[in-house]
Task: structure prediction
Amino acid sequence: MCGIFGYTGFRRLGPIILEGLKRLEYRGYDSAGVAFISSGLQVMKDAGKIDEISRKFNFSGIDGKLAISHTRWATHGAVTQTNAHPHISCNGRIAVVHNGIIENYIDLKRELISLGHKFRSETDTEVIPHLIEEFYRKTGDPLKAIFMAVSKLDGSFAFLAIFEDHPDRIFAVRYKSPLVIGLGDGENFVASDVPAFLKYTKKVIFLDDMEVAVISRNSVEVFNSLTREKVDKEIYIVPWSVEDAERGGYPHFMMKEIMEQRFTITRVLGQDDRIREASQLIKDAQKVFLVAAGTSYHACLASSYWFAEIAGVNARAVLASEFPSISKLVDDKSLVIAVSQSGETADVLESVRMAKKRGSKILGIVNVVGSSLMRISDAFLTINAGPEICVLATKSYTSQLTILYLLVNDLVGRLENAKEEIKRAETLVAHMLESEALLKDIRRIAKDLSASEHIFLIGRGISYATSLEGALKIKEVSYIHAEGFAGGELKHGTLALIEEGTPCIAIVPEDETKDQTLGNAMEIKARGGYIIGLSNEEHVVFDELIRTPSETSLSPIVMIIPLQLLAYYLALERGCNVDQPRNLAKSVTVL
Ligand code: M6R
Result:
């Protein structure tokens, strides 16, 4: 949800700002803008894609000492040039870019207008530069003005501010929205996410809530905004390589990230101690909740079947956005396992905060090391999948399934066996992804389905989760209405939608659900449905077969691969924007 990026240092400003913005574009892509200081504070911004805006204003040509920039995912105010960030103070000498939501902006705006401030946009963000201006006028001290402004804000915010009067400093503030500082030699970076500057430094500082950083070319100082005291921050070394954040010859990040599953699944291994610590937390808990959103929720749902079948543990998968409604069930004997690729999803973080207040322990499972979720958890596990840039989650899903599978098996003393199964699953995934015949078949099927209005997916047991995840992938990237169902559910209503030729994908692993799912496929076919089977063998009910390995214990990992590919090819056939689907953003950092 919006990307913010700032730089101060010895490099030419334009190219580095443009590069940082482009690398954050996955977080939002409605509009973009830059503020920089070069003989006065200047702002360039517009609605549209970064490339278009950059061409219009010649971002590459920007020169000066420092700059802050923004790529927007609109929340308050339409997608217009005026609403694009940066926003400026009345006198045009303070500029701000912001990610998050200022919940009390209406009251603040009213107050500021009564003090004579003139607003230009419909955004919540614009109150920030005006507030800072107000306090700066009173104190003459930019840091004090920021502290005072922060104390007035409710909601979630990561923002950067620059002052024309202090052209050597970027002020960075974080509360409930991510912000990370990249430490260079004679230069420093600040961004919503590490890939923005990974090419230049792997040394980072993660800001915590209510911290304010003062960033200049040769120094970074961090203060607690409540006590106003200086804070000593730990420096982390990011374990990702530059190549991890590049497309590496693939036409889209989505394809690159799907293909990376040939080796990312086993990258989860190697954290036995942390797994043991995590399974102890489960053993000590009377109630276990798996909390996540979107794809991560599907990984939780799939794992709830493993928890039940393998370990006899009742682990309830709950959508993070629904968690508040059941939070009364959570107490000091509970464990919340919160799963999030980004570790920054607002619904997940809010659920965790709520659970903590009720005395629950938190086990975080994240991809982004240093993320908010990791830092507020009592214990954490990483999936180590490397940066996932495409808005669609692909490799993070299979890695989340992997770590959850290891965890469940550790509970019953099967960790070593599970590791072997995982290695085998990765080999099967690699075979599928390296099979030109399979890729060709899926591409052909995508072409046939590309004009469909609806696609239904059915699966039973753990494959129900696969059907939901497959449907999400198809919807998100190809804009075809797709829905996943438990195989037995269609006849309770949805069967009414089946017409001659309606495509339905039956997920049929070689497990105890096979015969019943085939039976459900028969019911659909009898009403004219067109059945595409995901199975290791032909069956009379299938009009098309996508052949999958006969792996059973890790079928969610194996079976999702062809569905990810199908979604990708559907998007290509329909000319959709693969890496940046409309209306979406990679990390949803607003509630
Ligand atoms: O970073 P998280 O795993 O917490 O993100 C959760 C969802 O926003 C995410 O999985 C989303 O549904 C993806 N776009 C799905 O492809």
Q: What stands out?
A: The chain has a mean pLDDT of 95. Residues 415-434 form the longest helix (20 residues). Residues 176 and 449 are 42 Å apart (CA to CA). Residues 293-296, 340-342, 345, 348, 391-393, 472, 476, 587-588 surround 5-amino-5-deoxy-1-O-phosphono-D-mannitol (CB under 6 Å).
